Amino acid sequence: xxxxxxxxxxxxxxxxxxxxxxxxxxxxxxxxxxxxxxxxxxxxxxxxxxxxxxxxxxxxxxxxxxxxxxxxxxxxxxxxxxxxxxxxxxxxxxxxxxxxxxxxxxxxxxxxxxxxxxxxxxxxxxxxxxxxxxxxxxxxxxxxxxxxxxxxxxxxxxxxxxxxxxxxxxxxxxxxxxxxxxxxxxxxxxxxxxxxxxxxxxxxxxxxxxxxxxxxxxxxxxxxxxxxxxxxxxxxxxxxxxxxxxxxxxxxxxxxxxxxxxxxxxxxxxxxxxxxxxxxxxxxxxxxxxxxxxxxxxxxxxxxxxxxxxxxxxxxxxxxxxxxxxxxxxxxxxxxxxxxxxxxxxxxxxxxxxxxxxxxxxxxxxxxxxxxxxxxxxxxxxxxxxxxxxxxxxxxxxxxxxxxxxxxxxxxxxxxxxxxxxxxxxxxxxxxxxxxxxxxxxxxxxxxxxxxxxxxxxxxxxxxxxxxxxxxxxxxxxxxxxxxxxxxxxxxxxxxxxxxxxxxxxx
Length: 507
Description:
With 507 residues, the protein is α+β, with helices and mostly antiparallel strands. The protein is built from 18 helices and twelve strands. Strands 1-2-4-5-3 form a five-stranded antiparallel β-sheet, with helices on both faces. Strands 6-7-9-10-8 form a five-stranded antiparallel β-sheet, with helices on both faces.
């Protein structure tokens, strides 16, 4: 039974009423020093790192240790407080800190303290001065680990939001670069920034992302990958609809192409959307290589993806149902290789694929040096022992190893995981129905991909709906002189026309 419009309105009103009830009531600030300290300690549950510094008989500074910058606290705030009139307005004008506010609500400045603010309380006043001097520790800038490239920038994002924003602004020195801040998570109060270039990004996509973030009602958010899943068009799909990248140059390239970006505090991965299926197989380094080399590498990447997904299922289907497609010179050694194998091809293939995945997962989770050793030695030892024990054939060892190697050519980690997983149901269908099973798997996958969207944009663009002008640069990398600043599904047509007009004027 579908709900009618009246029921939907009632449900919406109930949700809004619940949200209003959940909002904390406004609590005044006590003008008495002892009562003020007692209330703050109760709110913070008397933590051991709660510090109280007395400036005078009527003025104190309270903060949480290790969250504030002690240099700014001692050299600026405490020094300037000794030379100012003891009123919130005078202190607000005197302090030479970029972020200083006067607050008259208890819960608000408690949240600021937990984000690295020092609070100045004056006896007899129901307002406090909040000076934000946070000193969060973060690792230094380093090369990206999951998206390495030979030619191009070697700097990646870190976990500090302000550092990441500064990296982006170094690439894009444009006043049209918009930065909208949000706070998510009732428990974590995680800060994030919505970034886009005004006049280039499609307003519909910006409004969609803004609305989805505003509608979220969650307790915590600790990473951008969680946020991407929450605001996806279809969070139940195995295919990612938003790109997670740790490269500032790739992120800025997306913004310049009309995409919308999100940077989350505490995460080294930024989000780009909307993103089409074909774009997950394009690397930022493709733009830095000469176009014939980049085109060859991109075509090689597509061939490797096809090999990784379908090579093992074709082996299983051919040996189970379609011996006639195997060339005669290959049929004899293949039969001799499988003569002592007690399992049917489907069991043999699934067993070996699982062993490869176990080795890959163990190598990824162990320390770097140990992980590399486990991957190489484990693969050689287990492969040799499996052939000698008659569990699998030599040819299948080569096919599975080639498929695993091909899966590593995918430049995006999230899409690489998808390719690893979709092989297994295709192998099962190939073992049950042969080539017909493979065709069924391809049809089901295409149907699912055609139904997907990213921020409402078609996921299979530019192939569906067909945009023939964008096909060449999606499959190969055209020379830069032939490439318009037009991505698969996210560029304002007006901006393209304006760029062309500017070029004509320049000529």
